[in-house]
Design brief:
Helix content: over 70%
Structural class: mainly alpha
Low-confidence stretches: none
Mean pLDDT: 97
Number of domains: 1
Shape: globular
Strand content: under 5%
């Protein structure tokens, strides 16, 4: 039976899990569902929905947990979003929207869901508030919707670990963006004005990526055997092919 190391599993799965999440988050279908649920502004639905698992907190707390967005943008969109129905209800509505999306687009794969839930359950959640918030949310009973929500939990895991890593190497959020994806992504995430030249900080970004991969690999090492890791990677790839093409 094929086997994978924990590090190989990170390289084989984490980007696909991230991209599946980005696919539904950016899909106009989710924005339209948000409007039906009372959120005229899709960004308000996004911030209140994704951050709503943190509960009734100030927007600065959500900004700290998300990490990459310009803080004033987060606060404005959070305040607008939670004004509709509160924080926890926003998270529930957001989950209903994206699990419905998953029901139409993901394969029904109970084995992948089982393995993904084991990865989530094996994670030490210290310093990962958004991941822990989503892990604590009730899941659909079964089916592709449940799988998509579990993959969302794992996406928040990778994002949280990366935020820990970039902070550990001394990168501010905007510096982490500029040393990676660049100014276009920084603007998309709400940052404005003249951007600093962060070329000298790129070695720190590379170090942060290594730390993130190491932290993620430790989770896979605890959660799955080598053969299960190979199976997990294969099933993630199949889910990715179904959603991403």
């Amino acid at each position: 039976m094929p086997e994978l190391s924990a590090a190989e599993t990170v390289r084989a799965t984490d980007k696909t899990i991230h991209d599946i999440g980005s696919k539904w988050m950016l899909d106009p279908v989710i924005s339209e569902r948000g409007k039906e649920l009372g959120y005229a502004n899709p960004f308000a639905f996004y911030f209140a929905g994704r951050g709503g698992v943190l509960g009734d907190v100030d927007g600065s707390v959500v900004s700290a947990a998300l990490g990459w967005f310009e803080p004033r943008t987060v606060r404005a969109m959070w305040d607008e979003g939670v004004a509709v129905a509160g924080a926890r209800e926003a998270a529930r509505r957001y989950a209903r929207a994206f699990t419905a999306w998953g029901e139409e687009r993901l394969p029904d794969d109970p084995r992948l869901c089982e393995l993904a839930e084991r990865v989530a359950g094996a994670t030490e959640g210290s310093g990962l508030p958004l991941f822990c918030g989503w892990r604590a949310e009730p899941l659909p009973d079964s089916g592709p919707g449940r799988l998509l929500q579990v993959l969302q939990v794992l996406r928040e895991l990778r994002g949280g670990l990366h935020l820990v890593a970039t902070t550990a190497v001394g990168l501010a959020p905007v510096e982490a963006i500029l040393t990676g994806d660049g100014e276009g992504t920084a603007k998309f995430l709400g940052w404005r004005g003249d951007f600093p030249d962060c070329a000298a900080l790129k070695p720190r970004r590379a170090e942060a990526e290594e730390i993130t991969d190491s932290l993620a690999a430790a989770v896979y090492e605890r959660a799955l055997s080598p053969s299960e890791r190979a199976e997990f990677a294969d099933l993630v790839a199949k889910a990715g092919a179904a959603v991403l093409g």
